[in-house]
Amino acid sequence: MAIKAYNPTSPSRRGMTTQDFDAITTKKPLKSLVKIKKGPVGRNNQGRITTRHRGGGARRYYRLLSFKLEDGIEGVVEQIEYDPNRSARIARVKDNKGNYHYVLAAKGMKPGSKFSVGEEASIETGNRLALKNIPAGSVIHAIELQPGKGAQLVRTAGASAQLVAKDEAYGQVRLPSGEVRMININCMATIGVIGNEQHQNIQVGSAGRKRHMGFRPTVRGVVMNAADHPHGGGDGGRHRMARPPTTPWGQKTLGYKTRRRKVSNKFIVRTRHQGKRR
């Protein structure tokens, strides 16, 4: 995937870039695999705002991806499609029973590519197997945390993990954050790297484009009044904080450990903080 730059016809257009959609083979999603999606307004089922500065934006349909597929499925990739709800591209697969599925499109996947799931699947990009059947050192994505639950890890554009070791019960997987984690060898994963790897390099360029994506304006705490934010107040001088960075409600935000007594701590071989120093 390449990135296309706009002509600098205005200050906001200067430096603005967009995705290259050449790899997308169709503009129309399959009607049976989409559903109406309410706007991303950042509210929970009680109507309370749980994520601030969200709302508005373009209307979009939600694509129903198959993160959990039955063993023995074999199919062919028919189309590579754009998904407005995620950074990765999605592939429309027709299996040997005539059913259609949406799966994350791996790098190099294109119409006509073979797709298979289960123990009989070959070690090729896009195929989905259990960790026990994947050779150590392989690059993988869309990894399950619990057997049969469906892919939960490594699902964003350009992301990949590596199966670094295996034993009788667990495989050690190095995640994109640098964390090395033990995962049950019966969990499924897909071979290869997720496509659309240049997504992270796109320059949004303008506030209006960000609103179109469903993000509302954010005001910095240091420019607020003291009554509105812990960082606020002052005589209009230098914006120095006399306290550690916090949220509007006083919760520390930088260097503050939020992971407390997690049951899954025992499965972490190397934390993401240690992984950054390697």
Produce a short descriptive summary:
With 278 residues, the chain is mainly beta. It has helices at residues 207-212, 272-275; strands at 3-5, 17-19, 34-36, 61-63, 74-81, 90-95, 100-104, 114-116, 128-130, 139-141, 143-144, 151-153, 161-166, 170-174, 180-184, 188-191, 268-270. The strands form five sheets. It has a seven-stranded antiparallel beta sheet.
What is the name of the CATH class of the domain at 3-132 and 195-200?
Mainly Beta
Tell how many strands the DSSP assignment holds.
Answer: 17
Task: Determine the number of helices (DSSP H or I, runs of at least 4 residues).
Answer: 2
Give the structural class. Answer: mainly beta
- Rg over C-alpha atoms, rounded to the nearest angstrom: 22 Å
Instruction: Please describe the biggest sheet, giving its number of strands, its sense, and whether it closes into a barrel.
Output: 7 strands, antiparallel
CATH superfamily of the domain at 3-132 and 195-200: Nucleic acid-binding proteins
Q: Please indicate the percent range of residues in DSSP E strands (runs of 2 or more).
A: 15-25%
Overall, the morphology is globular
- Tell me, rounded to a whole number, the average pLDDT: 92
What's the quaternary structure here? Answer: single chain
Helix and strand pattern: EEEEEEEEEEEEEEEEHEH
